[in-house]
Amino acid sequence: MSHQLRFDEWLEAKIYTMEGGGGSYFPWRDNFWLYDVMHQKGRSLVKKLFFLNLLLLLLSLFVKRLARYKSIFLFILLSTLFSTSIISFLKHHTTIPCPESLIEFGGTRHWINIWQVFEQDLPIGKCYPAGHASSGYAWLCLAFLFPPGSRKFYLSLLPGALLGLSFGIAQQFRGAHFISHDLLTIAICWLISGAFYHLLRNIPGWYRAVKYHLCEGGSGQMEPTGELLE
Question: What pairs with residue 102 in β-bridges?
Fold first, then answer.
């Protein structure tokens, strides 16, 4: 919606003007705090978090104290990996340009409509959705570990929300993304997390039902009753 209403362009023009842009690239594109800290070091941080979770998952296969959290580590691994991978795939197949690519901000491309997102006659934008922000928003999956509406649910939203917002806003100030890119990224990360939560939560029930039908010749309906936190 913000893309079609060109709110994206309006907001980015305000940022560009505030930075003192005058027809060339975004003045803050190579800003130390935005690029070196938020982009480079931020990327390094989320990679370390990902591999820490992977290490914990592997340890849970051998360390008895961690065994009960195995499904949690697996859920976080799948959610963060698939969220960032799918968004990266879309970035390399969509035609929506970055702000810095538009003529208005010193680039060479014109504004295009959202329904041209997969237009074959247009160059790949490598911008839509927001890749860097996805490495933060992917951690919204932590909220699925707690009952919806509970205090822990809202608190567990904070890591992913703060990381994603920080990365997303930094990229917008660098002219690398529009706000709609981040909004789509949030939606994708949330849907993927929900899908994996539902899948892992129901696997034990599906397994019991299949085993019942194959081994005992039962004819009852499947009743997925497994819990992710078991």
Answer: 109
